[in-house]
From TrEMBL, chain A:
<keyword id="KW-0597">Phosphoprotein</keyword>
<dbReference type="Pfam" id="PF01740">
    <property type="entry name" value="STAS"/>
</dbReference>
<comment type="similarity">
    <text>Belongs to the anti-sigma-factor antagonist family.</text>
</comment>
<comment type="function">
    <text>Positive regulator of sigma-B activity. Non-phosphorylated RsbV binds to RsbW, preventing its association with sigma-B. When phosphorylated, releases RsbW, which is then free to complex with and inactivate sigma-B.</text>
</comment>
<dbReference type="InterPro" id="IPR002645">
    <property type="entry name" value="STAS_dom"/>
</dbReference>
<feature type="domain" description="STAS">
    <location>
        <begin position="3"/>
        <end position="112"/>
    </location>
</feature>
<protein>
    <recommendedName>
        <fullName>Anti-sigma factor antagonist</fullName>
    </recommendedName>
</protein>
<dbReference type="InterPro" id="IPR036513">
    <property type="entry name" value="STAS_dom_sf"/>
</dbReference>
<dbReference type="InterPro" id="IPR003658">
    <property type="entry name" value="Anti-sigma_ant"/>
</dbReference>
UniProtKB/TrEMBL annotation, chain B:
<dbReference type="GO" id="GO:0005524">
    <property type="term" value="F:ATP binding"/>
</dbReference>
<dbReference type="GO" id="GO:0004674">
    <property type="term" value="F:protein serine/threonine kinase activity"/>
</dbReference>
<dbReference type="Pfam" id="PF13581">
    <property type="entry name" value="HATPase_c_2"/>
</dbReference>
<feature type="domain" description="Histidine kinase/HSP90-like ATPase">
    <location>
        <begin position="8"/>
        <end position="134"/>
    </location>
</feature>
<keyword id="KW-0723">Serine/threonine-protein kinase</keyword>
<keyword id="KW-0808">Transferase</keyword>
<dbReference type="InterPro" id="IPR036890">
    <property type="entry name" value="HATPase_C_sf"/>
</dbReference>
<keyword id="KW-0067">ATP-binding</keyword>
<protein>
    <submittedName>
        <fullName>ATP-binding protein</fullName>
    </submittedName>
</protein>
Length: 113, 144
């Protein structure tokens, strides 16, 4: 299965809905999308992972890269994820401390630091 | 001898194939359904790492995956042919890009060691091998 990406704007947030598998083959597409959004001035991103079936360390690397980019502009990158198998990967790598992880897009969009 | 052996060109698009094959063979071998996600992720990490190592060192040889069914256990060996320094070895003098590669490599290994209880990583001048083992339950319909 390939990666699907769609973006929409909610207030000052940009929601990136990701579907499919994020791995060593597809992660570059997600990286491109995040880089493009930041280059276009979207610094508050919400990445909706509910449609993600598979995530590996390459995907984690891309998300961390995205976080670094938005932080350079005092922005934010929030994740939406309820899937245990995906959350587990964030836990074992300690990234739950790095990313704010929300249960719904609405919650992520409404969240402030 | 391995139950199933797989060799693939060191290209990212083939890593998914390796994940699917490994998960299918693991399921047949009697690895618990609940653990199959971990098998899939761990073999994907090991293969992604091997692909990266081959590409970064210009190795044209394929990445090798051996799926080994044994009594009460199932093992996966992912072998690369990239010459590499010992783990935690000297990385000084490397450029930023090389550092990033090392970091990615370590991230993959971190995921593997977080996921798999029984994992051995060996490296040498002629390549490296990651061996991961999971227990298997005897099939309910085992032949006497």
């Amino acid at each position: 299965m390939d990666l699907s990406l769609s973006t929409r704007t909610v207030g000052d947030r940009t929601v990136v809905e990701v579907g499919g598998e994020i791995d060593v083959y597809t992660a570059p597409k997600l990286r491109e999308q995040l880089v493009e959004l930041v280059n276009d001035g979207n610094f508050h991103l919400v990445v909706d992972m509910e449609g993600v079936d598979f995530l590996d360390s390459t995907g984690l690397g891309v998300l961390v890269g995205g976080l670094k980019r938005v932080r350079a502009h005092e922005g934010s990158l929030r994740l939406v994820c309820n899937q245990e198998r995906i959350l587990k990967i964030f836990r074992i790598t300690g990234l739950t401390k790095v990313f704010p992880i929300h249960t719904t897009v609405e919650e992520a969009v409404a969240a402030t630091d | 001898m391995a139950t199933v052996e797989l060799r693939f060109s060191a290209l990212p698009e083939h890593v998914r194939t390796a994940r699917l094959v490994a998960a299918a063979v693991a399921r047949r071998a009697g690895v618990d359904e609940a653990v199959l996600d971990e098998v899939r992720l761990a073999v994907g990490e090991a293969c992604s790492r091997a692909v990266g190592l081959h590409q970064n060192s210009g190795v044209t040889a394929p990445v090798k995956v051996a799926l080994i069914e044994e009594e009460k256990q199932f093992s996966i060996e992912v072998g690369d042919e990239a010459p590499h320094a010992a783990p935690g070895g000297d990385t000084s003098g490397a450029g930023q890009e090389a550092d990033a590669e090392v970091e990615e490599d370590e991230m993959g290994l971190a995921v593997i060691s977080g996921l798999v209880d029984d994992v051995e990583v060996s490296t040498g001048r002629n390549g490296g091998l990651i061996r991961m083992t999971w227990p298997t339950a005897p099939p309910a319909t085992a032949l006497a």
